[in-house]
Write a structure and sequence with these properties.
- By secondary structure, the protein is of the alpha/beta class.
- It is 38% helix and 13% strand.
- It has a single domain, classed as TIM Barrel.
- The strands form two sheets. It has a seven-stranded parallel sheet with strand order 3-4-5-6-7-8-9, with helices on one face. A two-stranded antiparallel ribbon has the order 1-2.
- It is globular and about 55 Å long.
- The two termini are 29 Å apart.
- The protein binds NADP nicotinamide-adenine-dinucleotide phosphate.
- The site of NADP nicotinamide-adenine-dinucleotide phosphate (NAP) has 27 residues, from α9.
- NADP nicotinamide-adenine-dinucleotide phosphate binds next to α9.
Length: 290
């Protein structure tokens, strides 16, 4: 399987009104230092990954000003400003970082307004393309309504174009939809963690993009003999199988695999060219819930 051609376009794009995102995107979180704290080990390499993503045709980069904090947004601006016309920077608010590396919730009105302005300033844009409200440790609809209302108001003020929700239950998605249009849901989901199966299908029915975080397992990479065997039989890598499975799972799924390596970036993008046959899908189904 080719690993260096411009293949991001092969996975196609997803559209909602005037918003268009490549289904093969890139998650920038891993560009900060260890545990997403402080500067990257290799700044030039981090900048190179961002430029390589755009050169490969990716128009969907996922970030947050709390990655680093500030570090990842600063890298994006340094690598890519002035931004290509098609590029969409998707950010998230709702958490903050503490020096011990924790990610406590930050969903008061003051914190959310500050976070939106921090993202605007660090990315150096007049309006944010898409902002996800990231919830922490609560699946209750009532806990989301207030914070999402704050973001809906900032959208009315013209600071945000589109809104999404992250780390949320199906009830929280419904609660958000009663307040303002929901463009994306960003939750933990991958070939081995399919708890959101129903929500993925509901998003597809309702024209909402479902953007799985940890598509490759995140901080604990997916490890499975089954995945390795399928990859070996198809002549590709286990990561490519995991990403191709997500692309085939639903047309509403958009990918934002994270990496700090240009080589890994190209390997991941090339997953867009992989069509998983029926026997592979059936074998991968045995991974669900393990
Ligand atoms: N909304 C939320 O709450 C939330 C939470 C977590 C993440 N996110 C977003 O989701 C994105 C994706 O999540 P993630 O980056 O944490 O996890 P991920 O994409 O599942 O996995 C990233 C890890 O896999 C490794 N990797 C990637 N490609 C590889 C390859 N081809 N070969 C070998 N190793 C590879 C990376 O290491 P290398 O750097 O060495 O390649 C990194 O350690 C993030 O970047 C972030 O934007 C959102």
């Amino acid at each position: 399987m080719t690993s260096e051609t411009n293949t991001a376009a092969v996975a196609g794009t997803w559209k909602s009104g005037e918003l268009e995102l490549t289904r093969m995107g890139y998650g920038a979180m891993q560009l900060a230092g260890p545990k997403v704290w402080g500067p990257p080990r290799d700044r030039r390499a981090a900048l190179a990954v961002l430029r390589a993503a755009v050169e490969a045709g990716i128009t969907h980069i996922d970030t947050s000003d709390y990655y680093g904090p500030h570090v990842v947004n600063d890298l994006i601006r340094e690598a890519l400003y002035p931004y290509p016309e098609q590029l969409r920077l998707v950010t998230k608010v709702g958490a903050r970082r503490t020096p011990d590396g924790a990610w406590p919730a930050a969903v008061s009105a003051d914190e959310l307004v500050r976070a939106v302005h921090d993202n605007l300033a660090r990315l150096d844009v007049p309006v944010l393309d898409l902002v996800n409200l990231r919830m922490t440790d609560t699946r209750a609809a009532a806990d989301l309504a207030g914070p999402f209302g704050v973001l809906a108001e900032l959208r009315e003020q013209g600071l945000i174009r589109h809104l999404g929700v992250s780390n949320v239950s199906a009830e929280q998605v419904r609660a958000a939809q009663e307040i303002a249009p929901v463009t994306t849901v960003q939750n933990y989901y991958n070939v081995a963690n399919r708890a959101d199966d129903e929500l993925v299908d509901r998003c597809a029915e309702q024209g909402i993009a479902y953007v799985p975080f940890y598509p490759l397992g995140g901080f604990r990479p997916l490890q499975s003999e089954t995945l390795d065997r399928v990859a070996r039989d198809l002549g590709c890598t286990a990561r490519q199988v995991a990403l191709a499975w997500l692309l085939q799972r639903s047309p509403a799924i958009l990918l934002i695999p994270g990496t700090s390596s240009v080589t890994h970036l190209h390997e991941n993008i090339a997953a867009a060219t992989l069509a998983l046959p029926g026997w592979a899908l059936r074998t991968l189904d045995t991974l669900a819930g393990r």
